[in-house]
């Protein structure tokens, strides 16, 4: 029997027997000599990352699709502001790498939908170009994430939108500016801003309004999360909404001069083509004959008194499908039409380059009824892979479709100011209307009205003609000039200096549009300042990124917004 001094052993729990550990020490110490758990493989880590980022990625893609719907043919311009706000929120408080991925997830579906008209070439072309353009938006996303740490981040974000568009407008191969925020706002309250700072200022206004809405959302989230719910606490969010509204309607205060120094009566001939797509030309001389026949009918209407004789006639790009200087039958047909109508005709034709054997000029030629062909303009910015093939020898072996571009177009070396009858017109050919510098230099050289000669037959009924017409409307406001679009198959149109589309044709119909257009000599503020606002805003955005880097603040995926909230830097 145990003595009285001994006690019966008690059952103890493992927790009771566990040694007391210091605060912060692991719950259980690994046995001596045990190996640390193996780090998950790359595939596992990527899968976990994908699951974690899937909701944000999906929201970014949805925002990109919303931005695509802001552009023609849909034209829901308010979505451009909301899409900018969404991207600002989705990149806020993220690392630069995370912001880049979010930007790419935003940009890829946006460009894929916007540029789907390229499917007539192939969906691989749509995908490839969309990926290239989305990479610029990825850089934008990284910049938005970085500058979201700074006070006043909506302003720096708007400047970064300008920097992104500045880069896309120039590289690679001379750039591709399709999809600028300004081109979704050619009939919105932001449009008049173009008269002050061109397309870049319109983009800046849209991006700033979107950033301010994002600022307001963040401020509202702070209040809901439990911050002091006072009038004073709500003022930043309310003020941001009010400022966004002010930015949106600021364009209404911009005067748009539309008075004419002189006028000219014009006729636009849309001869039509055989069919849409890559083979729109049909048999030789068919497109030319369509425009000749439409012009001959115009001449008969003038002789019968049904139509007033115009001062000049405008044919579209590629209206002569054969070189009139190499094929006598093409020249004879043009001269027949010009003599019949009795006024100068601006003819679009592809001609052999006079000094560069093997190259082609895409030209607008002034054809006079008495003296024949005279002054001309050669397109300055041929489209890569459509009108010339970079690295032809190497790429043609891999991409056989490039053989459908048998000869390269040679870029012109001067602006397209042409005297056509009584009017000094600025000729801009097709995609050149998307490039700020080309149109600005043409107006600066003395153009009193602008003509966009274009051939959209390849992309008919895809939305591309509507997108290009929207650019013409913006250029009209930017430069205070009437803009006349002449297309082989549509959309031909007359745009007033205030951006209103006064007349337009339907696609794939033969049509002749007659109108009296104003000829103006005055210049807008945008004409005088040129590209200075774009450069200044882009540099400010890049300096904001540099400042974030130099300050050395580290962004954490979680908690960053909370830290900034404490500092009042929403």
UniProtKB/TrEMBL annotation:
Q: Which InterPro entries match?
A: Apolipo_AcylTrfase, C-N_Hydrolase, C-N_Hydrolase_sf, LNT_N
Pfam family of the protein (one): CN_hydrolase
Bilayer-crossing regions: 58-88, 100-118, 125-146, 201-221, 233-254
Quick one: which pathway?
Protein modification; lipoprotein biosynthesis (N-acyl transfer)
Locate the region Disordered. Answer: 1-40
Q: Where is the composition biased (Low complexity)?
A: 21-40
Q: Where in the cell is it found?
A: Cell membrane
- CDD domains registered for this protein in UniProt: ALP_N-acyl_transferase
Q: Where is the composition biased (Polar residues)?
A: 1-11
Known EC number:
2.3.1.269
Q: Which GO terms describe its biological process?
A: lipoprotein biosynthetic process
MF terms from GO for this chain are: N-acyltransferase activity
| Annotated GO CC locations | plasma membrane
- Give the domain of life: Bacteria
Q: Which residues form the CN hydrolase domain?
A: 269-519
Its placement in the membrane is given as:
Multi-pass membrane protein
Keyword vocabulary terms for this entry: Acyltransferase, Cell membrane, Lipoprotein, Membrane, Transferase, Transmembrane, Transmembrane helix
Class of this enzyme:
transferase
Q: What does this protein do, in the record's words?
A: Catalyzes the phospholipid dependent N-acylation of the N-terminal cysteine of apolipoprotein, the last step in lipoprotein maturation.
Q: Which family does it belong to?
A: Belongs to the CN hydrolase family. Apolipoprotein N-acyltransferase subfamily.
HAMAP family in UniProt: Lnt
| Protein name (Swiss-Prot/TrEMBL) | Apolipoprotein N-acyltransferase
Q: Which organism is it from?
A: Streptomyces cinnamoneus (Streptoverticillium cinnamoneum)
User: Species lineage, top-down?
Assistant: Bacteria, Bacillati, Actinomycetota, Actinomycetes, Kitasatosporales
